[in-house]
Amino acid sequence: MRGIAYDRFGDESILQLRDDLPDPPVGPDTVLVRVHAAGVNPVDMAIRQGLLAGAYPHHFPIVPGWDVAGVVEAAGPAVVTFRPGDEVFGYVRRDDIQWGTTAELVPAPQRCLAHKPASLSFAEAGALPLAGLTAYQALTEALDVGEGDRVLVHRAAGGVGFNAVQIAVALGAHVVGTASPRNHGFLADAGVAEALDYDAGPVSAQLSEPVDAVLDLVGGDTLADAPKQVRDPARIASVVDPVVNEMGGRYVFVRPDQHDLEELARMADAGQLRVPIAKAFPLERTAEAQRLVAGGHVRGKVVVTLR
């Protein structure tokens, strides 16, 4: 099998294009997906650097990537939802780290997949799962966002933030987003009612009134300022810093969920959710794709395409 892999922790230089990777196993409840596109996310670099070694068993060589869009190649005998030939997308976070999505084939537990939204290309669908699920689970579960809520989304032009903006709008919220001024028009097109400049001083001082809920995607001083931004500290969610739990809010670590993926697909096909691609790289340039994401300030999503 052809794919990107590494056999030790380190920087981008350890990523190798290999033609000799073994074909993945297909368990009883596993779907083997032929990959068309794989999203690139900050967690890919954290894994490559060994920062999650204490959280998951790691087995070298490791193929990076948790986001996928592709076509079902085969399905285990207990799988009833998917058949060979189905177009799917998903967040392939297994219980261990080895078989990632930047390869020709990836074995995905069926809970990690849903049918691909018809309105999205493979590249767009491959860029959606991790960021989309993070935003959806934070807004609907941790923050219980509903009609009429004023919701503040930090780093709103990034991958998770831009999804959060669109999902919050679809839920009926009035959205305030922080971004650099060059991205304010980009956010307005997505439904942001008020755009604030995160470099113009504390956000709490820029708000005309406190909001009902805050989604923190930055941490640090921004998270420390959050209790001044919101009416109820219990409605602060952060995806970057567990210290939010000590503040009375909630830390969110995204999980695979077939129902939530189906909701994202429904929103996409209803025209409520679009996925801007910042840049698409061929498989052999995966290291460049990771380097771009690691640099931050990417507007939209970065993907690796195999077809």
Q: What does this molecule look like?
A:
This protein has nine helices and 15 strands. The chain is an alpha/beta fold and 307 residues long. It folds into two domains: 157 residues, Medium-chain alcohol dehydrogenases, catalytic domain (Quinone Oxidoreductase, Chain A, domain 1, Alpha-Beta Complex), CATH 3.90.180.10; 121 residues, 3-Layer(aba) Sandwich (Rossmann fold). The strands form three sheets. Strands 3, 4, 5, 6, 7, 14 and 15 form a seven-stranded mixed beta sheet that branches. The protein has a six-stranded parallel beta sheet with strand order 10-9-8-11-12-13, with helices on both faces. Strands 1-2 form a two-stranded antiparallel sheet. Helix 9 links the parallel strand 14 and strand 15. Helix 3 packs across helix 4. The model has no long low-confidence stretch (mean pLDDT 97).
Task: Put the structure in a nutshell.
Helix content is 26%, strand content 24%.
Distinctive features:
307 residues, alpha/beta, Quinone Oxidoreductase, Chain A, domain 1, Rossmann fold, 2 domains, 7-stranded mixed beta sheet, 6-stranded parallel beta sheet, 9 helices, 26% helix, globular
Strand content: 15-25%
Give the integer mean of the pLDDT values: 97
Query: pLDDT below 50 for ≥5 consecutive residues: which ranges?
Result: none
- Fourth-level CATH superfamily of the largest domain: Medium-chain alcohol dehydrogenases, catalytic domain
Q: Into how many domains do the coordinates divide?
A: 2
Layout of secondary structure:
Layout: E1 3-5, E2 16-18, E3 30-40, H1 42-48, E4 67-75, E5 87-91, E6 105-109, E7 113-115, H2 122-127, H3 129-142, E8 150-153, H4 159-170, E9 174-179, H5 184-190, E10 194-197, H6 203-206, E11 213-216, H7 220-229, E12 236-238, E13 250-251, H8 258-269, E14 277-282, H9 286-294, E15 301-305
Parallel strand pairs: 8-9, 8-11, 9-10, 11-12, 12-13, 14-15
Antiparallel strand pairs: 1-2, 3-4, 3-6, 3-15, 4-5, 5-7
